[in-house]
Write a structure and sequence with these properties.
alpha+beta, Arc Repressor Mutant, subunit A, Beta-Lactamase, six-stranded antiparallel beta sheet, two-stranded antiparallel ribbon, elongated, disordered N terminus, HTH-type transcriptional regulator KipR, transcription regulation, WH-like_DNA-bd_sf, DNA-binding
Length: about 230
């Protein structure tokens, strides 16, 4: 009887920096990576990567798919949850939403991507009686509204915006909104800042007048979340 070949094992000599090199080879937009792609991105040899992957798989950081590709697994999500809780996103976002609402006179919100939808995570309502009725936790479609556009913008596009996204009548025929994507320390999308209100008040001209203040608040929020432009210390 032919014995099955044992899977390569990590004997404890693999250094932490090699493990981290493999994990950080995964980038935003990757669903899975082949062994060849990992070799190209890390500069490590195949046998080393295979040994590291066994250890990462044993600890729940990666899964080896049926076609031989590797994808990140649930332990990464768990650590991300721990990170988000430690970050206390609310304390960073809410003061800036209050400032946006005060300065614009309209409702300021922070949206996050939730599968095929966008979810209102935080919100400061306009002081006007005529305003949009939406609460934290409410879900909206990923349509052509400004917030949805900001949430699906690729990083290189979102970070280089010269004008915020603007929409009118996309989700609600009577509503308008302006939005900017917000990125964190690893250039990951944290969510979208959104100013919204009745289209009769939040006109395109008025939205344009808010741009300098809106960009300033968005950049300040990203700095507080640890984002650093490429090449900065």
């Amino acid at each position: 009887m032919v014995k099955a070949r044992p899977r390569p094992a990590v004997n404890g000599v693999a250094s932490a920096d090699r493990v981290l090199t493999v994990l950080t080879a995964f980038q935003i937009g990757d669903s899975a990576l082949t062994l060849v792609e990992l070799v190209e991105r890390t500069g490590l040899i195949k046998s080393t990567i295979m040994r590291l992957m066994v250890s990462l798989e044993n600890h729940g950081f990666v899964n080896r798919m049926a076609d031989g590709r590797y994808q990140l697994a649930s332990e990464v999500m768990r650590l991300n949850t721990v990170y988000q809780e430690a970050l206390d996103l609310e304390s960073h976002v809410l003061p800036r939403l209050q400032y946006l609402a005060d300065q614009s006179g309209e409702t300021a919100s922070f949206y996050v991507r939730h599968g095929a939808y966008r979810m209102c995570q935080y919100r400061i309502n306009s002081s006007h009686r005529l305003r949009l009725n939406l609460q934290p936790g409410d879900m909206r479609p990923m349509d052509e509204a400004a917030g949805a556009q900001a949430l699906r913008a690729p990083f290189k596009v979102g970070i280089a915006l010269k004008k915020p996204y603007f929409s009118k009548g996309a989700t609600d025929p009577h509503a308008a909104s302006v939005a900017l994507p917000i990125y964190g320390a690893q250039q990951e999308l944290m969510g979208a800042l959104v100013i919204s209100g009745p289209a009769s008040r939040l006109t395109e001209d008025y939205a344009e007048s808010l741009e300098p203040m809106f960009f300033e608040v968005a950049h300040d929020l990203m700095r507080s979340l640890g984002y650093k432009p490429d090449g900065s210390a």
